[in-house]
Design goal:
Blueprint (H helix, E strand, L loop, with lengths): L21 H12 L5 E4 L3 H14 L2 E4 L21 H9 L12 H13 L5 E4 L2 H12 L3 H4 L9 E7 L5 E8 L1
Parallel strand pairs: 1-2, 1-3
Antiparallel strand pairs: 4-5
Protein name: Histidine phosphatase family protein
Organism: Sphingomonas desiccabilis
Pfam family, one: His_Phos_1
Length: about 180
């Protein structure tokens, strides 16, 4: 699940730790109401952690925070509006986030590696509350999509992406649902 709408929506929110709007928490709680899960795992950034805490309390299940589920760190661009970032540099990043990572920021391959590692440890029947970038990295790691293909998915705030994972020598996954 992607976290609810943050107080600083519309900005490049990577490691910026901002609050989630009350309506964003409500949207996540509503989206989780019909789901079956036995634990909640979340990014330790407040916009995910606060939504996850509310969901875990509603379902009376354990919550574990895991920083590997954080959003891509946008470095010196973090917390800024895209309009306040050099347009050519930003376009270069979107075209090649490994070769043109944000100044002082994280490379796409680093995000992908940490999310793939976290995904390997996810137990069945887990709800993960995270960020759009981490969700896209999970699609690449689990389903074998390339980075560009992962951008074909619209991942609005409080959306739920359900995956069935098969582990082993040739791990794979199946997308069961994507609900806005």
């Amino acid at each position: 699940m992607r976290h609810g709408e943050p107080a600083l929506a519309g900005r490049l929110l990577g490691s910026t730790d901002c609050d989630v709007l009350p309506a964003g928490v409500r949207a996540c709680r509503s989206a989780a109401a019909g789901l079956a899960f036995s634990r909640v795992i979340a990014s330790d950034l407040r916009r995910s952690a606060d939504c996850a805490a509310a969901i875990a309390a509603d379902k009376d299940v354990a919550l574990r925070l895991d920083s590997r589920w954080r959003e891509l760190d946008f470095g010196r661009w973090d917390g800024r509006s895209p309009e306040d970032v050099d347009a050519t540099a930003l376009r270069g990043f979107w075209d090649d986030p490994d070769g043109a990572s944000p100044p002082g920021g994280e490379r796409w391959s680093t995000l992908l590696a940490r999310v793939a590692q976290a995904l390997e440890e996810v137990e069945d029947a887990s709800l993960i509350v995270t960020h759009a970038g981490a969700m896209r990295a999970a699609l690449v790691a689990a389903c074998g999509f390339d980075r560009r293909q992962s951008w074909a998915f619209d991942l609005p705030y409080a959306c739920v992406l359900s995956l069935r994972l098969w582990r082993g020598e040739a791990p794979t996954a199946q997308i069961l649902a994507l609900r806005p």
